[in-house]
Structure formats: structure tokens, C-alpha cells
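ugh ok so i messed up the first submission bc i forgot one of the chains. this is the corrected input, ALL of the components this time, i swear. 834 residues overall. if the numbers dont match what u have on ur side tell me asap before i send this to the collaborators (the ones from the other lab, u know who)
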Amino acid sequence: MYFTSVEFFVFVALSLLAFHLAPSLRARRWVLAASNAVFMAVLVASPTLLVPMAVFLVCGFVFVRVAQARQSRPLTVASIVITVGAFVFFKGYSVVDFLPPLLEPYSVVGLSYVLFRVLHLLVDGYNGAIRTPVPFLLFLNYCCSFLSWLSGPIQRYEEFLEQESHLANPPMSTGLVWDAFSRIATGYFKLALLSGFLVDLHEFLAALPLSGAGTLRLGTILGGAAASYTLYMYYNFAGYMDVVIGLGTLYGFRLPENFDRPFASGNFLEFWSRWHITLSNWFKFYVFNPATKALVSRWGTRRATPYLGVVAYFVTFATMGIWHGSTPIFFVYGLFLGSGVSLNKLYEIEGRRLLGKQAFGRLRANGPYAALCRGLVFTYFATALMCFWMTPRTFGHVVQNPLGAVVAFLVAAVFAAVILETGGRARSASAGARVTFQRITQGDAARPVWVGIKAYAILLLILMNTTGVPTFVYVPF
Amino acid sequence: MKILVKQVAKLVAVLALCHVALLGVSLWLYPIQARVDTIDHENSLFRDQFQSAVNLSLESGFQDDEQVIIVGPSNALLGFRPDEVERRMPGVRVHNLATASMRSDEIRKLVQMAWSIMPEEHRPRTTFVVSVIFTSFPSAGSIYMRREAGVAHEIRRSGSFRELDDEIDPRWTGLALRTVTLLRRPLALVDAWRDDLARIVSGTRNFLLVALRNGSLDTDLLGKSRPPLAMLFPRADSEENRQMNLSMLRYFTTAKGTALAAAQFEELSALVRWAGDNDVRLRLVGMPVPSWVRDGLPYYDDYRNQLDPILRQMRSLPSVRFIDLHDADLPMWDATHPEPARTGDWAKALASALEAP
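and heres the new structure output, hopefully the right one now
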């Protein structure tokens, strides 16, 4: 049951109908639980594949309740270690290759995001931020909501609880419903069409021969393949988010945003506050903050503290990168991310120290400099993502021509800067036209017509697309 | 609940209105016709020939009583014009589903599709005319074999069939099939607009239609060559042009070597067998081939040798007959195609042969 399948639309229609027909909050909770169970069971080939997931959830629930009841540090630490250990074992990370694997096949789809939610409940349950005991049904609905089970967004439990308590009479207005329809249509455009076109382009470029290629050819092909892959990832993931956030609205949930024009970021630190926002926030709360606190308490001095932040950034983002997958290449990806963010932080510290706060601020506001920074952020991220698609053969070509690779990187950064700057200017220039267009299409009478035409056009294009809809890229993570 | 249901109803209403509007536009631009002729729709709703052959067949369902359905490559498309054949066969409706450079496997699939969507009561009153020429059996390295799109592709795209063991079964029959096809029209219309855009961007044109309309050919077009290429062949009015015809045929049909694809002959054999088993009236027409082509092509003997067992196989099948026009003295433009101004002669030859006892 993929998001673009007819089955998914039927499933959502039935689930929404049952949800809104349910007479009480309690009944609606059960409808949500049943919907989640059906979605999970249908998505994997057989429900029996979800047995490890069920064990993980039950143990997680027990740990959370114990952490809330006892507020014991050793017990909570042990629970976290066991939970993370089980996750590493089930996901089959190469560090646990020495352990015998489970004999029966099983599915780990969605396990990563369940882990984040369980750890959040554990830590916040222990430190008293979540005071009321978490009921089992709510725990399941929170951890396994079909809207965010696969890849987020990672909503905080307090926020979920507040919205969930109003589900008997969820906030629903004509405007909200049309916002949701429009968002879902846009999401499908990104997910099923735009990302499909980009992945085709990427596969075409990535398959081009590189033997004997000069710097220009190597840079052009690899740059094009990297850029198209990055944009594919973005539109695929952001499109999925649009769909689930839109659907969430129809149930009465306001799921948190996960993307905010990430390629407009002026530096790598800002990028992570715009890309996969809820994951970045999770790592900020549960890795960066504790790591910084621990480092500062041990080695913190007035001069050293900013540099300890650099180390904490490295640890946080390296962990985030490694979390993405169980093979050694994700370790490389983690180092890439960690290095990028920590070097960025170091550059900021040194820039402020050498130029002074105000002069450094002026430099950052300088147009060409800011544009170049945006280009560098995009290019660096695209380079990091090459870990996911570059073959050893392609890597060999890059290694054979290291100077060419560096030149290609810098040229690509300038090129990306020009494109992003042009895009940004076009966006600013068309702001007036967009406001006028919105005014015309947002009226009570015009809205259904506009959204309907948009949805129809997208539906038609999806049906016409003979190359097939790309799969959701984040499922394996 | 009420708000949601009301807005969903509004959305569905707008979607339905959009669909009806686009359906109306497509029917206004391209009304449904009783006769199916691929070439009439060359530059219309169902943009290219494979699409038109498949979609128009589905839409029409072949409703006429006594009917002839012509299937084959471009020489059948250009040579057997339906109105010219109908003039010589009063009371018979002629449909032409031929498509430029059609291979034997595509011919088989199209014949079987036409048969499967036809109302059962019309089957006994239907004759399939399948043109047989060496170009329908291209070897693996030739440009025809490397062509990506085809009848099977279009049948798949139509969404109206299930494929089981290489057999194509309609999901629906009769009115339901035609309704589904009609409802899919807006999709084809937008598809056609997209193709138009692609053609404008890529600068390609349909040479077949250009050649047919102008009645003259320009060898300069060869620089932009892409299938359908058949009518790009220069007029065979000089020795030099005849040699060019032959070298092009060698390239397009076999690329290298002198043998045609045995697998393609097996497709023809399968078609004959299927027609015999299902009592389908099938007329294989050996298409005209000038003597300078027969003598000048290294694989012509191979073609005849591989065709012979199929002709022998046909002798035991009462519903299948071979009409040999290979040696007929019909006006030719080039190695395989009719002289555009003299297609009536071709129609006459076909009509006479079909009406012969």
C-alpha cells in the first residue's frame, strides 16, 4: 500500500469516515489504533514480520512507565542502553555482526522513528517533563501513527497529547479542509512527479561513462548527478511531508513542519534548522544539549566553551549520519555531516574573533558572500549524499583526479550559488504576483475551483506518467 | 464531519467537472468515427500510430457487420486506403490499423486485440488482412528491433487489458470497455499535448504524413531520420536511388548479415495457428516487391525460405488463406511503398483477391 496507490486512498477514506463517525474520544482513539495497525500490516508483506517491532514497542512502553514511576537514573540509563541496543541489533548494524542474527525474517520499517519517540518519552518521563502516566493506547497511537510512522515528522508527546485530547471535537473549518486538500495535492506533485523526473535524470547522469573523462566532463556529470539526487531527495521527502501533514489536518492533528526552504540556508548550521527539522530538533535535545553540558561541565572555561560546542556539533551530526544506515558507508556520511557542521561552527567562532562581531555580521549580510555561502551549503550537502549512490568505480574516477574533483566542487558551488540566487530573486520579484494570485484563489467560491483544477491536473499527470512513481526514499531509514 | 463531507463533495464535483470538460473538448476536436483508420489520426488526439491503432480500436469496438481489418506495416497503411477498398467492395466496412514499420509480433498482438474486443456476433463477419513483407521480420541488430514503443506498450498503457503468459485479455468487454476507453480520452488528449510540446522542443516531425501529403520525398530529411522511416526512402527512379533504397533496407532490416529473425517468423506462425484454432478469417497478403529488390537484397531468399513452412502450415487451415501479391505489377514509389497517386491500383488488387472464391 504505497502512498500513490488506489488502496491507500481507499484506506484513508474509510479511516477518515470511521474516525468522524465515531461518537466519542475513546472510540476515535480506537479507530486511529486500528488504522495504524492496518496500515502497518498491509505495508509489510506479512503481519508476522512485525513481531520484533511489537516486542520493541511493548518493552519501550514498560521502560517509559518505569522511568515515569521510579524516576531512577540507573534504571532509565539501563532502559536507554537496552532500547538503543535492541534497535542496533534489529537494524543489523555492522558493529553487531558478531551476534547471531534472528532466524525468522522480520521488518524494521518505521523502527528508527519509533526509537526516537520511545527515547523522547523515556528521557522526558524520567526528568518529569511528561508527568501524567502514558496510557498504552496513546503510546501506540503516538509511536505508530500511520501518518508519521515511516519517517516522521517527530512530534513531541506533549504537543500530540494536547491535540489528541481535542479529537472528540477536532478543529475543523472550511478553510482548514481546503488547505489540507491543497497541501496533499502539492505533496503528490512533488512526491510522484517532480521527484520521479529528478531521479530519472539522476540515474541517466550517474550511468554515463567516466573512463578517461577530463575535469570538465567529470565535474559536469558528477555535479549534475549529485544535484539531481539532492533535489530528488528533497522533493520526495518534502512531498511526503505535505501529504501526511495535509492528511493529519483532516483528522484534527497539526503535525509539525519538517522543511522550510532548506536551500535558502546561508550556512550549514542554518541548513539543519530547515531540513528534516523535527529530526534535527530531536538530536539537539537528546544528543547535542547533553553532550555540550557534559563537555562544558568537564572542560568548560571562558575560552574553551565555544570550541567544546564545535566538538558537540561534530558528535551530534556524526551520530545523525551514522543512524541513517547500518553499513560502513553511513559512517563516512556521518563523518561528512559532522565535519561540515563543526567546521562551519569553527569558522563562525574564528570569524567573529578575527573580524569582530559586527564586521562578521556585515560580511554575512553581503550579497555575493551570502550567495556563495548558499551555493557551498548546497554543494557540500550534495557531496555528502553521494555516499548513497556513488559506486566504487565512480569513486575510483574521482580519486584518480583529486584536483579535478576539488575544482569541480568549487565550480559547482559557484554554479549552485548563481542558480539559488537567481531563484531567490525570481521569488522576491514574483511576490506581488503571488499575493494577487492568492487573493484571487483564496476566496470562498474560488478556492474549491482552484484546488479542484490543481488536483485534477496533478492526477492526470500522475496517470500519464508511464515511467512509474518513485518509491518513498526515506522508507529504508 | 459535515464540513468535511461537504468539502469532499465539492472537490469531487470539481474533479468530475474538469473531467467532463476535457472529455468534451476531446470529443469536439476528434469525434468518434465508425471507421478506424490509423492515418486519419496521425496528427490528432491519439498522436502516434501505435496509440491511434490501439485506442481507436478500443473506442470503436468494430461495430459494423461485414468488415475487413487491415494490419501490417506502412505499405499496408499507405497502399490499402479504406475508402478506396470500400468502393470496390460495396457493403463492406474497411478499417486500417496498419502502423509504420510494424513487426510480426506487433501484428499478432494487434490482430488478437482487435478480435478480443469485438462483439462476438461480429466475429464471423470479419476478415483480417495481414500484410506480409520481409521488413516485418527484422534481425536483432536492426533499427526496427531496437524501437522501444510498440503495440504491446500501447495496449498496456490503455489500462484495459491483463497480461497472462504473453496473452492479452480484456478486463472488460463491450459497452464497459468502450466506456472506460472514452473516460480515458482526456488522458490521451493531455498526452497528445505533451507529445506536441516534445516534438516542438525536439524539432522532429512525422515524415510519413509529410511524404504522403506532398507525394514527394526529400532525401535531405534523412539527416533527422527516426522511425517511421519507411517513406523517407528515395523514389526509385534511377539506379543510384535504387541502390540507396537497398542499402537503407539492409540497414533497417538486418543491419549486418543476411538472416532475418526466426523469432519473428515464429510470431507469424503463432498468428496463423491461433487463427486456425479460433476459426478466424485471416488473409495473409504477400506484399508487392519489385524484382530489383528481390534480386538486390541478400536476405530475400532467407525470407522466402522461412516463410514457406508457414504457407505449408496454412494449407490445412480452412479459415486462413495466402494472397500472393509479391510479384504483382503494382505502381511503386520505392522498394516497398505504393506510388501515392496510384494507391487505387493497390486497393483494386486487394479487393479482387479478397472477393475471389
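quick check: The longest strand of chain B covers residues 126-132. that seems consistent at least. Chain B is about 50% helix and 10% strand.
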